[in-house]
TrEMBL record:
Native species: Streptomyces chengmaiensis
Resolvase/invertase-type recombinase catalytic domain span: 1-110
Keyword Ribosomal protein: no
CDD domains: SR_ResInv (cd03768)
The UniProt record lists the keyword DNA-binding: yes
Catalytic residues of the enzyme: S9 (o-(5'-phospho-dna)-serine intermediate)
InterPro entries: Recombinase_CS, Resolv_N, Resolvase-like_N_sf, SSR_resolvase
A Pfam family assignment: Resolvase
Keywords: DNA integration, DNA recombination, DNA-binding
Protein's recorded name: Recombinase family protein
Amino acid sequence: MLIGYARVSTADQNPDHQIDALLRAGVTRDHVHVDTASGAKASRPKLDLVMQLLREGDTLKVTRLDRLSRSVLHLVTLGRRTARARDRAGRHPLHGVRQDRACQRLLGAR
């Protein structure tokens, strides 16, 4: 299953461009989860839900890594948590909509 995650920092910001990109990447509307929270804010209920929903074979799509993570350390921590959900082919479940090789190496993608 494809699961999408988007985040905006304030209620004044509009997540529509992130949602549109996730939909174009194949995520269905009912599997797109959006938080309105500062990146520094520890509590992000939709991200917590997404992390609980991920199962072996699932793929988490984000538009940019800064929408997912507060820092490089937080990104590595999330990468380790999601690594448990690798599918049988060894694919990492976390994918940026536009993911480059540096991000793939950081997340341990094969």
